[in-house]
Amino acid sequence: MLLTKTQAKGHTAFTLVELLVVVSVIALLISILLPSLKGARDQAKTVVCATHLRQVGTAMSLYLASNGGVYPAFVRLS
């Protein structure tokens, strides 16, 4: 049985077609995953916004409790 050079050395290389197939499969998987990642990112932004609103509400409640229920005065800086 005759062996080619690459078979005799014991290693083979990827062909261009195999490489293109792998790249296209990876691109397909990324295109499937991106919309779900965008949804998760939007949900995270919503949670962060809700947390900030809760912190502002808590700060206002603490301010009102320590100042006899009087809201802070509006000061115009210009």
Give an account of the 3D structure.
- There is one protein chain.
- This protein is mainly alpha-helical and 78 residues long.
- Helix content is 72%, strand content 0%.
- It contains two helices and no strands.
- The longest helix has 51 residues, at 16-66.
- It is rod-shaped, with a radius of gyration of 31 Å.
- The relative contact order is 0.05.
Strand content of the residues, in percent?
under 5%
Radius of gyration: 31 Å
Helix content: over 70%
Q: What is the overall silhouette?
A: rod-shaped
Brief rundown of the structure:
Helices cover 72% and strands 0% of the residues. It is mainly alpha-helical.
Tags for this entry?
78 residues, single chain, mainly alpha, rod-shaped
Topology:
Elements: H1 5-9, H2 16-66
